[in-house]
Design a protein that fits this description.
globular
Length: about 450
Amino acid sequence: MSRPPGLGTRHCQALMTFSSIVLDFSIRSNLSIGIVAMTDNTRPNPSLPVLPWTSSQKGIILGSLFWGYFLTTAPGGHLSRKWGPKYLMFAAMLVCAVISILCPFIALNYGWFAFSLSRVVLGLAQGFLLPSVHTHLAKWTPLQERNRTIAIVISVVTMPIAGYLAASSWGWPSIFYCTGLCGVLWSAVWLFVGADSPESHPSISDREREYIITTRIGSSSHSQTMKTPWWPILTSKPVWALTIAHFSHNWGKWTLLTELSSYLRHVYGYNIKSNGLISALPHLCSLIMMVVFSWAADFINSRDLVSLTSSRKISSTIAQWGGAIALCGLPFISSPTSAVTLLTVSIALGAASYTGSLPNPLDLSPNFTGLVLGITFGLGSLSAILGPSLTGFIVTDETNRDQWMNAFYVAAAVYFVGNAVFIWFGSAEVQWWNDAEKVEDETEQ
């Protein structure tokens, strides 16, 4: 069936899911800028006290969100299929927004441990959001638009805003207030315009609904009532390969994301405002490369130039091995400009993962996308705890460049090993257990 002309209801849904990921990412990652301002003596707002947190405590704080995230991604994926993603996304975002607004009060009055616990609760809520977004995308995204839609939905650049807010007279609490209030606003809008699927949307045109349904490969309109194939999923080699790929990707991504601001501040002396801009430069380049990679992947896949499995593995290799090579080059340069350039290259190449391992749950099982993503992202998110925490223990002196290099070497090694496993065991073929009838037949035999 031909694509309906112009913008349609699916584009409105994509815009809302995009903005949900923007806010999810902002609420999750703005602490990497905020924690520099919270513990920096050169604060623009003298009425705010300097928080006396050590390097290891900051590492624990930066990784604490993922303890909660790890616990709820798999339940979030399962429940988003059973109940539909709309109301789970609404509730998860609202809780995230409220916790974000409360963060400054907790940090200023109850210390680093209580602040870490608030981040764990934040992670519990965020664990429901991303699997629900992917369940939503599985129902709303035609195959021909999949790479572009997923890349656009997940692309985010917010650090310049965080840097300006931290350097303003309002101080670092404004980072949490702004993202929290935006989350409340999103929740209100989503309640009225969001829908679980084209079949349940009240005003979508018949032509667009039929177009989406006929181009969804392997996705059943009755997936909510299917029996969950727990054992086949948990014993699937491609699922475990994807889990390891997510683990390695998250290790490098979140080590750089959470520690880059501190590295630039303490090794090269960048102030908070310029730090926010420079920390955002790699992610701005990543956004540009994300568009390039997604269009290239859709072009390659639509013309069958290589198999979808090969396409996913090539993209993952560019992201992880390319990023590892860039990190390994850091010890050989000494100027701040060269350091920022290499870090920018490493993070920008990581954008290829948005057409590599990240959309792979949708390839493996359109009917159980949220659950597969919840399992693989949940276990993979452990590295987002371990990476920043280990960096906090490796880098005991934040002005010591050699200690930072050791942390970056570890990230490069994890990148390399994780992608090697994905190349060897990964797949982009729809798995047999995606079909409920085949699972029942296999069980009976």
